[in-house]
Amino acid sequence: MADNRLSQVSGHLSNNYSRGMLNGEVAIITGAGQGIGRSAALLFAKEGAKVVVSDIDEKRMNEVVSTITAAGGDAFGVSGDVGADDFPKKIVGATIQKYGKINHIVNNAGFTFDKMLHTMSDETWDIIDKIHVRAPFRLIREAAPYFRIKEQSQRENRSITNVSSTSGLHGNVGQANYAAAKSAVVGLTKTIAKEWGVFGVRANTVAFGYIQTRLTDDSAKGVAIEIGGKKVALGIPGGSKGNDAKDPFPHIPLRRGAVPDEAAASMLFLASPLASYVSGHTLEVTGGAGI
């Protein structure tokens, strides 16, 4: 059995590298209109995946789809709030109707809603939990029939990648809600790995440190999103660069933040055949911070 699986992996690698590591596979990526999600959508498409681009911002979502198709890739968009009750059925149904299968889910959509613990309202706690824990769980559950494939000969490379954060691993001031949610993601992922491993499904978490996105930009810029009719301010005071211009990231051994393309590359690795024996793992993408 092990030798047979190894030969299947080796064959997949040698046969498909010239056409991309994800050639012909279908990937759903949420929050793919900008930032890390956008980079992941473009990178997955470059590696041959058929990408289902999802975002709450339909205009940005369509721009990503257009970029992929203009370059000769295959993609379409499903807009909407990942936390909406009808979202899982909507995106899974559209994906199956279009492509007939699902190989990968990347649960990337999310945002921060920071408050100190003693001033945090129930609503501020609940919205973060809804988007970062409940939404990924419901999407994965809806897609279960396309992952829990009993017949081994009918299985392809399939994976689930859930996005966590160093806040979920170590906690963070002002982020009790976000830290708790991102910690829960790790437990969810490990459970999927244990329950669905028998079906050949891999499930991993990627925990990001400082990535240069709108979530880590200077909050003074006033960027906000609207969730459930409520505006949520994004960013952090000063943009996390500190006061030392010569050494703005003293806590990061690489002494810099990452760009979204670097973050997306870790997602590609976890979805690709290169990680064919990696499951239940939390990959820290931090430039060495927190070691």
What can you tell me about this protein's structure?
Helix 5 runs parallel beside helix 7. The chain has one domain: NAD(P)-binding Rossmann-like Domain (Rossmann fold, 3-Layer(aba) Sandwich), CATH 3.40.50. 38% of the residues lie in helices and 16% in strands. The chain is globular, with a radius of gyration of 19 Å. The protein is built from eight helices and nine strands. It is an alpha/beta fold and 291 residues long. The strands form two sheets. The protein has a seven-stranded parallel sheet with strand order 3-2-1-4-5-6-9, sandwiched between helices. The chain has a two-stranded antiparallel sheet with strand order 7-8. 42% of the residues are buried. The longest helix has 21 residues.
The computed structural class is alpha/beta
CATH fold assignment: Rossmann fold
Under CATH, the homologous superfamily reads NAD(P)-binding Rossmann-like Domain
DSSP summary, beta strand count: 9
Helix content: 25-40%
Beta fraction: 15-25%
Rg over CA atoms: 19 Å
Q: Can you tell me the residue ranges where pLDDT is under 50 for at least 5 consecutive residues?
A: 1-14
Overall pLDDT, averaged?
89
The main sheet orders its strands as: 3-2-1-4-5-6-9
Q: Which word captures the global form? A: globular
* Number of helical stretches of at least 4 residues: 8
